[in-house]
Amino acid sequence: MASQGYQIYGMSEQAVELGRLLEHCIKDCRCLDMESLCVISGQKVWQIRLDVNVLNYEGAIMDCVSVAAMTALSHFKRPDITVTGEEVKIHYDDKDPVALSVHHMPLCVTFAIFDHGNFIVVDPSAEEENIMEGLMVVAMNCNNEICTIHMSGSMMLTKDQLLYCTKIAAVKVDELTNVIKKFMQTSKLRSESKEMKKLITKQEAPQQFINIKGVKVDLNQEIHGQMDVSHVQLEESGLGVIENDSTWKKV
Asked: What is the mean pLDDT of residues 170-189?
């Protein structure tokens, strides 16, 4: 689905390579607090599964995969639990969910190497990747810490060229991290706004309208200076009263 160059069934070599690189960035670099996933020591733990589906391949796929993966992990929340001895109770509705503890966000920056390193392209397109001599992926966090460096292809880089790429990667990672943080902040505000609307809706009395001989009555509003939801008297019509069960009774 992402590109015509991929197999319909089974995983390609590039897919396996991406999976291993992503696992190394997230698991081996310890960007998540694994101890917080422990429920009962030696018995029960939370299992977090991350699936990435590529919809359109236009080059530098590892950059997109790392951003999507870290955004998903930062946004994900698991149900809260209560542990009593060896009994575990999962709270789905009665308690707020708990976010994962993310120590840092390793993000990838892809470089396409041409002419033995004399030309280096950041964030290459699919066409540029088809003619490049080699590929280098640098994974860093916003603290300028190198998490991993992955190189493939027939090329050799000098120390100065490698340092030059890491400096560029540091700038790109800082920009991507700010984009993710901005998205998380916007998502948090939207979630809080939805929760506030739900709370206000629960607290507000439901509107009840009753139409009797052309007289429309709102049980939640004041009539002739009187406010009594359980017993509203229609003085103007002189017909009778509306009891709290919303039924009309003659007097």
From this structure: 91
